[in-house]
Amino acid sequence: MYHWPDENLTEYLDQHDYDVVEVSVIGGYYQYKKLLKLSKAINASKNREYFKFTIGGHGPAADPKYFLEKTDADVVGIGEGEITYVELLDAFSGKRTLESVDGIAFINNDGVYVRTKTRELIQNVDDIAWPAWDLFDMNYYALLREPHIQGNERCLPVLSGRGCIFACNFCYRMDKGFRPRSAESIIAEIEFLKSKYNIKYVIFSDELLMSSRERTVELCQAFIDAKLNIKWSCNGRLNFADIDVLMKMKEAGCVFINYGIESLDDKTLFVMHKGLTRKIITRGIENTLKVGISPGLNIIYGNIDEPLEAIDEAVEFLLKYDDHAQLRTIRPVTPYPGSELFDYAIEHGLLRDTADFYENKHTNSDLLAVNFTKHSDEEIYKKLYEANMRLIDCYLEVQAEAYKKTCAELYFNRDSTFRGFRQT
Asked: Which among 181, 179, 186 is positioned nearest to 253, based on CA atoms?
């Protein structure tokens, strides 16, 4: 919350007694480097021999042995942690052995790497307790900003389910399948957040709220019947972006849907296993705009044999359909460990292993980690530069026009609601 330097963590652990310290991260160059820095700070504590250090999340879970060696952690958690962690604490307390805890990896006392049986997924996610919001400064966390949120509106994330029914080749999600929460459970949580913390905007931050047409409509109707009266955003699928579905979402309070378009090239979409075509994408985006919901247009470049002209097609698409609720640029695809694309890179000699990925190749999310195309890095970077310069210029022009309109309203129409040009 306060963004203290990592050294403060060492000092804090020196001054307080803990049984376990846990760090959880997703994949990514920033998360990897931050995990190493935090691990160094944790291991430097003079109390290190008295507490266990555990790590988890999709990042370490993809290659537990590598992360154990890099962080000197005692245990890596693999998969969902709610049940695993309770059992792990029992093991740390001497009530059971580490080997008996499913869903973990560790180096035993003989220096041997041990990975236990896969943890079974929690099938009824309604049984999982809500987050312990009372342990956090909610006045800070409620300052999250999302498209179409007002300056005086407070916002928090909520999960509508776990997992995804699709299997994109660049996704490193470890847990298979989709497990939805009931509408009743979601509504109860949102009503609590409204009454307790005055939340007016909810981010459904799970991988896919729009898992089917039927579920989406059912959930939205439940929101309407419950008179939730909130704004919300979610991750969606263009396969299900029919007018009737989107109208119901709009009626239920949805103001922004984040779509994973990824490419406008049909062959590349097939290679990705997106289950989309350019025709489906275009229809879905046009429908979304037609009902008055902002679409988040996410496009990446560089999947297997993707043509260079796909970048030009993506730019034209963004310039035509982007409503500028957010600045949108095009990034290279990244083959994170755990993804099918990572395995492809290993098989074709484009990567050696996880160490090669994190220590040599993945230096930034806007730079190529692996080039899967038939074009040179220089050709791709030149094309991405030209594409993103056009997108940035267009976004800034739109913002400038909005400021000019505000200025005219202020001085010529004496707009007394004006509260300054500074961004908040």
From this structure: 186
